[in-house]
Amino acid sequence: MTAEHIKKILTEAFTPEFLELLDNSADHAGHAGARSGGGHYHVTLVAEAFTGKSLVQRHQMVYKALGDLMKEQIHALGINALSPSENTKGNLSK
Predict the structure, then answer these.
(1) Tell me: the pLDDT tens digits for 11-37?
(2) CATH H superfamily, domain 2-86
């Protein structure tokens, strides 16, 4: 349920042209974060909100949107945040 909740939050926050969330938690079974219940995820977002923002600013925006989930439900999060103009290959779409 956490993965769907993450997707819902990110969709509401960024209205992305593309959103993919991979749950890699099973690959980390036995890891300290997994034992405490925190999941391992990787998100790819293409959204206008990232236009003109640095990599650090984009990550901060995602962390802020996820808020308290970053404290317990999410142990690790990989982020690939792109503006629509950076999606030059056009292979990321809804």
Answers:
(1) 999 999 999 999 988 765 555 544 555
(2) BolA-like (3.30.300.90)
Domain limits, the chain: 2-86
Output Rg (C-alpha) for the chain, integer angstroms. 13
Region of 37 on the Ramachandran plot (φ > 0 left; ψ -120 to 50 alpha; else beta): left
The full DSSP string for the chain is -HHHHHHHHHHHHH--SEEEEEE-GGGGTTSHHHHTT-EEEEEEEE-GGGTT--HHHHHHHHHHHHGGGGTTTEEEEEEEEE-GGG-TT-----
23 DSSP β-pair partners: 41
pLDDT, tens only, 34-89: 455 578 899 999 999 999 999 999 999 999 999 999 888 888 899 999 999 998 75
| Longest CA span, the chain | 40
